[in-house]
Design goal:
CATH class: Alpha Beta
Number of strands: 8
Number of helices: 5
CATH superfamily: Gcn5-related N-acetyltransferase (GNAT)
Shape: globular
CATH topology: Aminopeptidase
Number of domains: 1
Order of helices and strands: EEHHEEEHEHEEH
Strand content: 15-25%
Helix content: 25-40%
Strand order of the largest sheet: 1-2-3-4-5
Distance between the termini: 39 Å
CATH architecture: 3-Layer(aba) Sandwich
Length: about 180
Amino acid sequence: MLSLSIPTLETERLVLRAPCEADAEQEFAFWASDASKFVGGPLRPDEAWRAIGGILGHWVMRGYGFWAVDDKSTGTYLGRVGLWNPLGWPEREIGWTLLPEAWGKGYATEAALAARAHAYDILGWDTAISLIAPDNAPSKAVAARLGAAFDYHNEHPKFGKTEIWRHLAPSELENGGMEAYA
């Protein structure tokens, strides 16, 4: 039997943990909705199940991936945030996909800061991007709160024209480019 070692990260309000099958029903509802339009949806439940499998497979193949994000005080599943670089991706990414009920509460920024700290401090990354749909203003706002800035346009084979937002490098964070890991 294959065993994954996915670290658990904690922030002031959140727990970032290994994704599990118990998250699937909420993921199915998200993927069936128009809220999933910026990340490849809507999808049928069978397609969403395979997408979840791809998230777990990314951990196996790359040694990092998306964490499931829970509210620390209630245990409520909020979505996923993490590190992403599947075949054909332009660069290693910090990404976030939260359920609509979790939007506008600062959870994406808080979780992405923890993911970025893991990427830089544990995995040794020296840069990261976020790939964002041009019309996704809320994700652009999260990227800006993280200190990222628009870098270039990318033509993605599935998503079409996307924007690449470049995150501050570890050295820029250390030199006061932004409050490191808030």
